[in-house]
Amino acid sequence: MTDVAVVGGGPAGLSAALFTQKNGLDTVVFDTDETWMHLAHLFNYLGIRSIGGEEFMAIARGQAEDRGATLNQGEEVTEVSKAGDGFEIVTEADTYDADYVVLATGRSRELAEDLSCELTEEGEIDVNVKMETSVENVYATGAMVRGEEMEAIISAGDGAAAALNILSKEKGEPFHDFDKPGDVPTLAED
Questions:
Q1: What is the pTM of this model?
Q2: Which H or E run contains 28?
Q3: What domains does the chain contain, in order, with CATH numbers?
Q4: pLDDT in tens, 23-59
């Protein structure tokens, strides 16, 4: 059983995984590598002057893995369903159990619809500011909740919002992920 299953390995999914894993929740990311970031070049991402989407994704994946998240590259999720107090995540390779699910599948809303997440009048997945769907412990992020607003920095923020809400639920109080220079671990360079 994992604490958090993230379906989608773009900016939203990796941001969610980074925050949850780094703060003590076992997190697995299922990533088919079909992110629109392959077509992107970032000039408008705060803190980054200029970087290609491929390079950005390599850094983001490495950052999530450095913090301990498991990245199941190429493992497509075919079904997510309620199972007891959590969820069952089915792929072609295996079946997993998780307490929380973060959907970060870009425009694809199929898994959210299969879970009976409510939709807006525009056909987007209906979420609140914490990225919570109508299904308890299921979060939706990025383009599936924002129509045509497909910006990497917005998606990453959605993933962070979902993660902070999950961490707040787990800790029983509002949680803030704020690091100071002395808190930052030294990571081995590859």
A1: 0.92
A2: strand 27-31
A3: 2-183 (3.50.50.60)
A4: 999 999 999 988 888 888 888 888 889 998 899 999 9
